[in-house]
Structure formats: C-alpha cells, structure tokens
Design a protein that fits this description.
Elements lengths: L1 E2 L5 E2 L11 E8 L5 H8 L8 E5 L2 H4 L5 E6 L2 E4 L4 E4 L4 H13 L8 E5 L6 H10 L1 H4 L2 E11 L3 H7 L1 H8 L3 E5 L6 H14 L4 E4 L25 H5 L1 H18 L10 E8 L5 H15 L3 E8 L8 E6 L2 E2 L3 E2 L10 E8 L3 H5 L8 H19 L1
Parallel strand pairs: 3-8, 3-9, 4-7, 4-8, 9-10, 10-11
Antiparallel strand pairs: 1-2, 5-6, 6-7, 12-17, 13-14, 13-17, 14-15, 14-16
Length: 380
C-alpha cells in the first residue's frame, strides 16, 4: 500500500505503467475433478484468444493438438491465439516476466490471465501472491477463484480431504463436473452440501468442460472493460445471511462425523452503517491478523472508508490483505459496507466484537484497558 499526504493508506487504482490492471482468474480443484478438461475447452473459445494461461506443467494438460509454435521451453502459442506458459521460479516472477515480455512486444498483448493449480494445492499462498506481490499488484488484479468439484466423487473427497473442503470454501464459482455420468440425486446432494459450505459462490454444472466463459470470467469486483463492478453476483448477501440461520443446526447434525471437515467452516456477512477511518481500518487489520489470522480463510466485500460515496473493495486471505481498490460508485442504492467472512473454527460473534475498531479504535482500546484494569483490581 502507498501512503497519502496525511500518512494514511490509499489504494492503487491502475497499473504502474498507467494502463488497465489485468484480471487474473485462478482455476483449481481436487485431483481428477476435471479442471484440465475445463481449461482445454475454454482455450478453444475465441472469446479467450487474448488470454495468457499459466500452468504447472504442459504434460499434465494434454494441449498438443492445440499447439502451433514454441517460444521457448517454458512458453507456447496456441492456435486459438492464447499464450500458454509454465510457472518458472514462482508465480509472482512468472507473472512479472509475462508483463515485461508483453511490454517489449515479445508476446501478444493478452488482456486476461488464467492460472491453473495442482489438484492438491492450498489456494491461500496463490491468493497471497496475487494480492501482495509487487511484481503482480503493479500490473494485475485478482478477479476470482473457480473451483471444479467432481460430480461423482465430490462428496467422498469433501469427507476425506481437507484440501477439497478449503478449495470449495474459498471459491467464487464452483463448477460441478461429470454431470453426464452422475445421477441426479447424487448431484443434488452435492450441490446442497456445497451451497451450505459456501453460499456466496455461484454453482454451475458441466459435462466435458462445457461452461460459458462469461460465467467464470470477470466474477470479482473489477472489470477493466466496463470500469464497473459486478457486485451483486459476487456478494450474494442474502444467501450468506440465510445460511447463518441454519448453521448451528447443521453443525450439531454433523459434529458426530469426524470426516465432515466442512462443519468447521463458517460463512457469514456483516453490514456496517457508518464509514470507517483509515486509522480504524489499519487497527482492525492489525487486530484480526494478529489474533485469528490463520482462521480467516477469506474475507471480501465493500467498505466505505472516510468518503461514504465511493466504497473500497477489500480482500484478504488469512494474515494477508490486498490493497483496497476504490470503486467509482456503489453498485446499488444500498450504501452500507458489507463484508463476507469465510472462517475455520471462528464464529460471527468473535468477528463482530472487533468491528468497533473500524470506527473508533481509540475508544475500543480504552475500553479494553479499562476492562483489564478492573480485572486486575478485583484479583489484587
């Protein structure tokens, strides 16, 4: 984050070279869930001809029939016009190298990036990079995370693998795959479970990777083509709020089952009527990161800071929060700040207890000191 003249934090609103920030979409999913099939199908779509794709290894993707030219051992050009490269030393360095090659005219001027992860990937480090690495944030902006879930095997994978639960919990879009070979009852049960785990995510169904690119691109809060946010789909506040009413019942129902790791995951939204201050935002960040950062799987939403007419996009993963990005206006007549929290073993009340820091951090600290002093006096 950069600093304004008063020492407060201010957001970066365009790339370091004055152009539009390039949106980056992350595609992940558990082993065998169909993300590679989805990626290969997407790359045939002419709407993605201006896309750069970053994958771990060409051999895993099976793109030989799409290749027309090799740039070097880490980069190829596809006949669809897409640029495809492997992760070099790190994701940040790969994205930085791609940008500079684009500026020098060594590669096509791509307008979006897709990053495909391995099936066992913890999405948190990837999101950390996209939100905090200067090589990335100077030229790119995180646009959303798409997660594939196996329609046939998904329930068992959620039971047995914490990675599968975490991937689904932090998703902006969930694509249930293999619907052509899965019976409807199994699909409906899986969709119900995914909806309870992450009501903020849109759930799509796919056969052989057939998904409309428009459903999984520009799903974040920043669309450089329109300069306006698609917030209504992204926040899905009503679904998140409704889930809160059923959470305790669901938790009690599943607590006997040691394999239902998603019972530890909670999703809730918090609305605020008053704008925050930059000092308050900094104090709140320090508090939640220091005490419960590891349990914040994801935080995202809109926050009014000082100027109530123009909100900021806030995104965080565990201890790491990205730069607030200022929007030109609110997406609707509702001017309340609203944040969605996806947490592990952390309930709504614990987060709500910290929210006063956003508005008046000095008063909250004084109250905490007074409580501590009173407790000490009672024990002396």
């Amino acid at each position: 984050m950069s600093r304004d003249d008063r020492g407060g934090v201010r957001p970066v609103q365009q790339s370091a070279d004055g152009g539009d920030l390039i949106p980056v979409t992350v595609l992940t999913g558990f082993l065998g869930s169909g993300k590679t099939t989805l990626l290969a199908r997407l790359l045939k779509n002419p709407d993605l001809a201006d896309t750069a794709v970053i994958i771990n290894e060409f051999g895993e993707v099976g793109l030989d029939h799409l290749l027309v030219a090799k740039g070097d051992e880490s980069m190829v050009l596809l006949d669809s016009g897409c640029l495809c490269c492997t992760i070099s030393n790190s994701l940040g360095e790969t994205l930085g190298d791609l940008h500079f090659r684009r500026v020098r005219g060594e590669v096509p001027r791509f307008r979006r990036v897709l990053v495909e992860t391995t099936g066992l990937a913890d999405p948190a480090p990837i999101l950390h990079t996209l939100m905090t690495d200067y090589l990335v944030t100077a030229h790119y902006i995180f646009d959303g995370i798409v997660v594939t879930v196996d329609g046939t095997l998904g329930e068992g994978q959620l039971d047995e693998h914490e990675e599968a639960v975490k991937q689904a919990a932090v998703a902006d879009r969930i694509v249930v795959t293999k619907v052509d070979i899965t019976d409807r009852a199994r699909l409906d049960a899986l969709r119900h479970r995914l909806g309870a785990l992450n009501p903020a995510a849109g759930i799509l169904e796919s056969s052989q990777g057939d998904v409309d690119p428009g459903e999984i691109l520009h799903i974040g809060l920043f669309d450089p083509g329109r300069k306006s946010p698609d917030v209504q789909r992204w926040l899905r506040e009503e679904a998140v709020s409704a889930k809160e009413h059923n959470h305790e019942h669901d938790h009690a129902r599943h607590k006997h089952d040691p394999h239902r790791g998603d019972a530890r995951i909670r999703t809730f939204s918090i609305h605020l009527d008053r704008p925050a201050s930059w000092q308050g935002y900094a104090a709140w960040l320090e508090a939640v990161r220091a005490f419960r950062g590891k349990d914040l799987l994801r935080v995202k939403g809109l926050l009014a800071i000082e100027d109530p007419e123009r909100p900021y996009v806030i995104q965080g993963v565990q201890h790491v929060f990205g730069k607030p990005v200022r929007l030109p206006c609110w997406p609707s007549a509702d001017r309340r700040s609203r944040l969605i929290f996806i947490t592990r073993d952390l309930d709504r009340a614990a987060i709500e207890a910290t929210m006063g820091l956003l508005h008046d951090p000095a008063a909250v600290w004084r109250e905490a000191v007074d409580r501590a002093a009173g407790a000490e006096g009672r024990t002396s």
